Input
Amino acid sequence: LVLVPRIVDTVTIPVLASGGIADGRGLAAALALGAAGVELGTRFVAVQEGNAHPRYKDAIVAAQETDTVIIERSIGRPARVLRSPFAEQILAREADLAARGADREAALTEILPFILGANNTRAALDGDLDHGFVWAGQVVGLIDDIPAARDLIWRMVAEARARLHRLAGL
Output
């Protein structure tokens, strides 16, 4: 609500809003804030055409907004993932690093084996969510199906139009 209008007011190029957008309400809000469009991350993981493993897609649909955690704070690049046994291991390791007062370089050395792309691939593409991690925003709480991408886009546009029409009448 703050960053999109701030960026729109600052730059002269089209701005895409991103983060927490999964339906027509989010699209309408982004447009109302001045964005030219939206970027969908987690929402597009859970579409039929996506290459994510079905377990990853199902986990997104089953998750609530409270089922995500932030990893990689210890190295200065916080990122949100679905809570899982593996993500909990990363969090525990990072808590230990913080308790020891480890600097970023030391933290990276210790945390790197856990955050390697292979661990993400193991979960995201191979479906082993217990031994890897998957990216996901709190928007998981708004996702309750795995539609075709085309259907999702048409649905979002129709919902956004309805919301914007309603707002115009207020």
Observations:
- Helices lie at 3-10, 24-32, 42-45, 54-62, 85-100, 104-115, 117-124, 149-168.
